[in-house]
Write a structure and sequence with these properties.
alpha+beta; elongated; single chain; Serine Threonine Protein Phosphatase 5, Tetratricopeptide repeat; TATA-Binding Protein; 5-stranded antiparallel β-sheet; 21 helices
């Protein structure tokens, strides 16, 4: 058994188990237990643990504690083994010894007991330990955590507070105390503890101006307000913000759901920028702790708003597979910038289309475009990239409108350039290809930046563009629903001049601006009738129900599905596109 004496780590224990199978491993571990020192006994005990022989593991660890009675870690491991061997009284004795020997293993013992579901035993153990060691911050902290996890947050607050008094520099204790205070509704006190603020209160006016800034209110207030909401969440830990109540387009009132906070923050525009005012909610003077809280929130929000940082996001966009009479793909001729987003053409990549694993699973070469933008200053660029996703989608919608081809997000916004995406430095000639199997070269229209600004300022145009883009997304696979989306786009735009529920009149008013007057009436009735049949009766008019053409028709016989998809719908798409381009100031 000389090889057993030379145990060097867990890999040697595993080797013993593998070499001797189960019975042989047990015999080898028992032999090793009789011939090694305390350090190696822990390895032998691990071997018994791998075989789930908890009694043997406990016996081995007990031998180790006899050799090294002052090793708190060994006593903690012994307690674990005894719990698994269903020797709970002996386990509690071992845990007590581990706690008494020093603070290093207190956290391990607490986690073990809670992991075994022994909350009551944990409270009993650490209550007795706290009586024996009243000056131990770690034991008091463990007792508080045990009470908190059992649901007794009021009792937890008292012990967390005592632990913090014993060790004021322990940030974990401070954080857990604020958590417990917040759970008991004492949010303002939680904030004061977290910020290490004094609790004195002085009298003052019921309305206090905390700061005035030279920020452009009308241009920036949506981003600034979101910054304030985020600052509330960050500055006051674990307390849910009540958000803000809109009193008018120019004044917003922020509140925090805290019974002990007796004030709100009001933002007001001034001739120079923005004023932040704290007002009392109960008619009493604004208290100092409230002012300190709101000043910290305002400072956080304004600092973040002025300095949005240099974080950058990247997204990849490209065309969807084409339909009849469309080119195979589009290629951006040269890079440009729209609304602060850099748009860069890239070299071709392969895109998998169809249903993977079936016969229609194919590769399609596309020429993607890389979008690069700065993270908006209303948030810190969290993992979900919500704001960046909205901007990437709007870019796809505008490009689909400008180039008359559906563009979609291929890789959602991320903080690094995706692997395999390489800028294309070659600038091809701007000419129409001879074959529909070729790639059409396109350029960024000069009106896109102005159009983006109009959409941001005009919610009606934004809604109309969204409806048009939904039609483009549905066009290939769901033409009847695309018809509904295009009609909705026109109705939305028509509501600018025709209020109320006169939807058909709104639709007609919008299209009459781009259709010849003599054709408008008949076409509009056709479009609207087909739209109603789909929206209200579920009728499908296009080729969505079949992958192929109906070959048993007589020569010259009409094909209504084909006529709808590549005639009626194509014409409505063109009219809707012309309407939006004109509304956005395009060519």
């Amino acid at each position: 058994m000389d090889d057993v004496v030379e145990l060097r780590g867990s890999e040697d224990v595993e080797s013993l188990i593998e070499r001797g199978r189960v019975a042989g491993a047990l015999a080898a571990l028992r032999a090793a237990r009789e011939s090694v020192g305390a350090a190696e006994l822990l390895l032998v005990a691990d071997g018994f643990g791998q075989l789930e022989h908890w009694g043997e593991r406990a016996d081995t660890l007990r031998m180790a504690t006899e050799l090294r009675p002052g090793d708190a870690e060994l006593w903690a491991h012994l307690g674990d083994a005894l719990v698994l061997d269903e020797q709970l009284p002996a386990a509690m004795t071992a845990y007590r010894q581990a706690v008494d020997l020093g603070p290093a293993t207190v956290g391990d013992v607490l986690r073990a007991l809670l992991g075994f579901g022994l909350e009551d035993e944990a409270i009993e153990l650490f209550t007795a330990a706290q009586e024996r060691h009243p000056g131990s911050a770690s034991i008091c902290h463990a007792l508080a955590a045990a009470h908190g996890l059992s649901g007794d947050h009021a009792r937890a607050v008292g012990f967390f507070r005592t632990a913090l008094e014993l060790d004021p520099e322990d940030d974990l204790i401070r954080w857990n105390l604020t958590h417990a205070l917040a759970r008991t509704g004492r949010s303002l006190e939680a904030w004061r503890i977290y910020r290490d603020e004094p609790g004195d209160r002085t009298t003052g006016p019921t309305r206090v101006v905390v700061e005035e800034c030279d920020l452009s209110w009308r241009d920036a207030h949506p981003d600034l307000l979101r910054r304030l909401q985020n600052a509330i969440g960050w500055t006051v830990p674990l307390i849910r913000s009540g958000g803000y109540d809109r009193e008018s387009e120019l004044t917003f009132v922020f509140d925090i759901e805290a019974p002990t906070l007796r004030s709100t923050l009001v933002t007001e525009p001034t001739s120079a920028g923005v004023r932040f005012v704290v007002t009392s909610t109960d008619g009493t003077p604004v208290q100092d702790p409230d002012l300190r809280l709101w000043r910290a929130i305002v400072d956080e929000a304004v600092t973040g708003f002025r300095d949005p940082g240099d974080s950058t996001w990247f997204a990849v966009i490209g065309t969807t597979p084409g339909v009849m009479l469309e080119y195979a793909d589009q290629r951006l001729r040269s890079a440009g910038t729209v609304a602060g987003i850099e748009i860069t053409p890239c070299v071709p990549v392969e895109e998998r289309t169809g249903i993977v694993g079936l016969d229609d699973d194919t590769d399609r070469e596309i020429r993607p475009v890389l979008l690069e933008g700065a993270v908006r200053n209303d948030h810190d660029g969290g993992m979900y990239a919500h704001e960046e996703g909205l901007r990437a989608r709007r870019m796809c919608a505008l490009l689909s409108l400008a180039w008359n081809r559906c563009w979609t997000i291929k890789l959602r916004p991320h903080w690094e350039v995706p692997a395999g995406i390489v800028p294309d430095v070659e600038e091809p000639p701007l000419e129409q290809p001879n074959s529909l199997n070729s790639t059409e070269v396109v350029e960024l229209p000069s009106w896109l930046t102005a159009a983006w600004k109009r959409i941001e300022e005009d919610s009606n145009l934004s809604d109309a563009l969204d409806a048009f883009y939904e039609g483009m997304l549905l066009y290939r696979e769901h033409p009847s629903l695309a018809m509904v989306a295009f009609v909705t786009c026109c109705e939305t735009y028509g509501s600018r001049t025709i209020p109320g529920r006169l939807s058909k009149l709104r639709f007609r008013t919008a299209l009459e601006t781009v259709l010849d007057e003599e054709d408008a009436a008949e076409l509009i009735n056709t479009y609207y009738t087909l739209r109603n049949e789909t929206a209200h009766q579920g009728k499908l008019h296009g080729l969505e129900k079949s992958f192929g053409l109906q070959l048993d028709r007589m020569v010259g016989e009409a094909d209504p599905e084909l006529d709808f998809t590549h005639g009626v719908l194509r014409n409505l798409r063109a009219a809707t596109r012309s309407l939006l381009i004109a509304a956005l100031g395009g060519d």
